[in-house]
Amino acid sequence: MSTSTNEAVSVEAPRSGRISPKYARTAGGKGNFEMLAWLFMRVSGAILIVLIFTHLFVNLMVGDGIHAVDFGFVAGKWASPLWQVWDLVMLWLAMLHGTNGVRVIINDYADKNTTRMTLKSILYIASVVIIVLGTLVIFTFDPCPAGAPADMIADFCKA
Predict the structure, then answer these.
(1) Residue 46 has pLDDT above 90, yes or no
(2) Distance between alpha carbon 16 and the CA centroid of its chain, in Å?
(3) When you count CB atoms within 10 A of the terminal residue's CB, does the N or C end of the chain come out lower?
(4) What is the tens place of the pLDDT at every residue in 84-132?
(5) How many Å apart are CA 134 and CA 140, to the nearest integer?
């Protein structure tokens, strides 16, 4: 048996037999979004490494270490605008980085458009809620609330 070298071999596209045509995805309209999302993951990941390891070093290694981390420690730390912004940037980048990663997983594994849309809607709503609540906590945190009972106020607050 001899095979001609001029014969064309046809190979089916991956997953071509598994996905029904009614679930076929449209390729239009994405533009540069996926490339920018890919780039964001690399940049935010590098920045998060610096933010997180500095956060861990300051909280766990400096001073009395982990034994000093309590309500007063956090209150003192968040009294400084530097640490408020530091923690805010860390929160926002971590949430956006994680949300983008889960979005990619949903796009990879959810076959139906309705399933993809539902899962991503839940993801985006949860991410926005966490970002908004976290931001509010960082900027509205008051260790010495006015009018609180004396037994509920921390030792460092003036009565």
Answers:
(1) yes
(2) 33
(3) N
(4) 999 999 999 999 999 999 999 999 999 899 999 999 999 999 999 999 9
(5) 10
What is the residue whose two structure tokens read 């926005």?
A: 128
How far is the C-alpha of 2 from the C-alpha of 147, rounded, in Å? 95
Q: What pLDDT sits at residue 14?
A: 62
Say if CB 73 and CB 31 are below 8 A apart.
no
The CATH number assigned to the domain with range 31-152 reads 1.20.1300.10
- Short-list 13, 6, 12, 26, CA closest to 116: 26
Q: Which runs of E-coded beta strand occur in 2-158?
A: none
Phi/psi region, residue 147 (left: phi>0; alpha: psi -120 to 50; beta: rest), is: left
Contacting residues for 111 by C-beta, under 8 A, at least 6 apart: 19, 23
Closest CA relative to residue 91, chosen from 49, 135, 128, 38: 135
Is the per-residue pLDDT at 142 higher than 60?
Answer: yes
Phi, psi (rounded to 5 degrees) for 133: -65, -45
